[in-house]
Amino acid sequence: MTDWTATLAPSLDDFAALARAAFDALPSEFRAASGEVVIRIDDFAADDILAEFGLEDPFELTGLYQGVDLGSRDSLGPAAEPSRIFLYRRPILDEWCERGDVTLSDLIAHVLIHEIGHHFGLTDDDIDSIEDQD
């Protein structure tokens, strides 16, 4: 039996390392198409982000894509701000503990890939459809 008394929850840095490993494990074409997207790890989404989505419980949002998706960029217009993917540590940990059927690395990879899908211009319904095919 595992002795959990000395075990600490993964830190923001631990999450960043797991997200980097998940990104590095993606096919090279997928990584290249992702461009210079910035991946950031925070404990929770900011209050204004939660309000924007009509969420009162910060545990409801595990990840977020902010930026102009690749399909909507105008090559003749001003340069777009860097695209950012946020992974929210505490909600992901909460889901991981509640589910108990997935590794933390796999869950982080899942959320990361979902948000990269938004970077490519996919909607939640598009992503769900793709996931249902697996």
Automatic annotation (TrEMBL):
It comes from the Bacteria. CDD domains: MMP_ACEL2062. GO terms for molecular function: peptidase activity. The keyword Protease applies. Keywords: Hydrolase, Protease. InterPro entries: Zincin_1, Zincin_1_sf. One of its GO terms (biological process) is proteolysis. The keyword Acetylation does not apply. Pfam families: Zincin_1 (PF06262). This is Putative Zn-dependent protease with MMP-like domain. It comes from Brevundimonas variabilis. The lineage of its organism: Bacteria, Pseudomonadati, Pseudomonadota, Alphaproteobacteria, Caulobacterales.
